[in-house]
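Student: Please help interpret what follows.
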Amino acid sequence: MPPTLAVLHDWRGGGSSAPSNFGAKATSLSIGMSAFSAYAYVVFPQVFQVVFFPYVNQLNWALLNSSLGMIIGLRELTGATQAAQSESFRTFEFFIIAACIYYLMAKAIETLAQLASWRLFGR
């Protein structure tokens, strides 16, 4: 599944699983909120809470699969590692360092997402 389609699928699933389907939108409209306000202040926060971690997972997946860009000539971490090891023939050391860098980037995204979750959702 293409990444864009996966993100849209996450948002669709979040929209159908959020508690807003059980009357929150209708209740907000009945107290005089406009449709835009109902979605912006009632429905969207509930959907975003459901979709937040799958979206972070897609972001992490895109980061870790960026090494596939090396195939078409994009110079990124794996490509730079391969170029460096071809000059010194220290393959194992260079790729261990690249793996550690990928791990640290993934952990940084995960930690930032956890901090954002605590800040946004209080959990």
About this structure: The first helix runs from residue 3 to 17. Residues 32 and 38 are 9 Å apart (CA to CA).
